[in-house]
Amino acid sequence: MAKKVQHARAANDAGLSVVVIGAGISGILLGIKLRERGIHDFVILEKGATLGGTWRDNMYPGAACDVAAHSYVYSFAPNPAWKSRYAKAPDIWRYYNDCARRYGVLPHIRYGQEVVSADFRDDRWEVRTADGGVFVADVVIAACGRLHHPMMPEITGRDRFAGPSFHTSRWDRSLDLRGKRLGVIGTGSTATQIVAALAGEVGGLSLFQRTPQWVFPVADTPIPWWKRLAYRFLPGHASRYYYQLQRETETRGRAATGDRDARAARDRQCTDALATVRDPELRARLTPDYEVGCKRLVMSGTFYEAVQKPGVQVVTDAIDHITENGIVTRDGTLHEVDVLAYATGFDAHAYLRPMRITGEDGITLDQVWRDLPLAYRSIAIPHMPNLFLVNGPYSPGGSASVVGIVEAQVDYILKLLDRIEQADVAIVPREDAARAWLDDVREQARGSVWGTGGCQSWYLDKTGTPSIDPTPLSELVTQLATVNLADYRERPRAPVRLGAAA
Ligand code: NAP
Question: Which superkingdom (predicted)?
């Protein structure tokens, strides 16, 4: 029996009621847009104690966003205050927290509410939380993020390590690393930021590399005061810069799908950056054997310099096991460390799981997703009426800031909400339309460098096909500008039955 029943819809309000899951960039954006649309009967259920999603969790040393700060914002809320081209994690967190406050989203957020299940009954969703709460609403929108379940590797002896050890998204910030020997497992964007920040600052740093990464050089140039003033006071200046950055990112991103000029320019920059590693033996160990851009590019102007600093070693012998005081590699060497950080990435394919979702006629998400995570346009799931996803399966990437992508998706969801409200229906994508869309996207993705470049990465789904839609943002915006109702089924909604969940 549920401990409490809460209706997202107020009894005297005829509008839609909505449960949003997650208070990260997408959930906050949904809050802003729902309010703008006149929908006030919504709650944002957040399992953490604060908002911010990825920018709350990833507070490791050096955490920053390698997408230009002025384009890593909501298009309608420029931030003239960024002090350099790339923003640090705490500043990004502050920006999104500030947006939530300024746009009136904070009162809608319920913290410590981990959603465990959602059931579609009597044309309404019943959303249950781990503490026994039940929220009833017309619509559920999952904004849970894609890189949010930390992956810990199966390495023998992991539990035996005597010192502090943690996944990078759970970094113990109370830890004083001065004089300590730090081991970092992994060489993705996270590990490289940590190494760039801590090389020379700790008692020793061992980077355990299984696969080398291509590194695209970027310079974190400061933004002078007069430019900041211009962004603040000259109308349209910051916004023009936002769209200029978007165009630049999109042009570079086209390298993934075969634009030869973009590809040649990108590859040359990466090989030139690698050539700055002075020791040929180290350079050889840092040289990938797959195509540039196959894995998500590491963007750093300081990583190669950092690994050449005294006290830093790049360990390329495979890890065999972990002991009380370090990592033993297959050649039998014990690499002693005092602190161990797992920069081993995230399960990018969990999406809504481990929540239990049951849609129309008792059909479960696991049934619908038996083969692949099927979501029409990454947003709407067959047999799950009025349930939508932001940044869902096969969402676009690689050619835009994720913020631009989720804005386009949220705008599309709002069009669906308009239809639900105006026609008083529940709306669900046709399975054949969803499959046709997915086949098309996967076909395009297969031809991208993520599929042909000869690497392993979190981009790949369980069949080895990239789970990223290579559609550039400008085309995505056009595609999502209209809702093709022929691709949906509509079912009339039954009248609201207050108290139905008890
Ligand atoms: P990641 O790119 O998935 O990298 C994980 C690393 O851990 C890889 O080097 C992987 O090696 C290694 N690894 C995994 N299991 C291992 C094992 N058992 N033994 C040894 N090594 C192991 O993870 P991430 O660096 O956390 O980045 C994930 C994503 O987050 C990025 O791709 C990016 O999209 C995002 N991110 C963005 C920013 C930003 O500035 N915007 C910053 C950080 C992260 P293999 O390569 O051999 O699998």
Answer: Bacteria
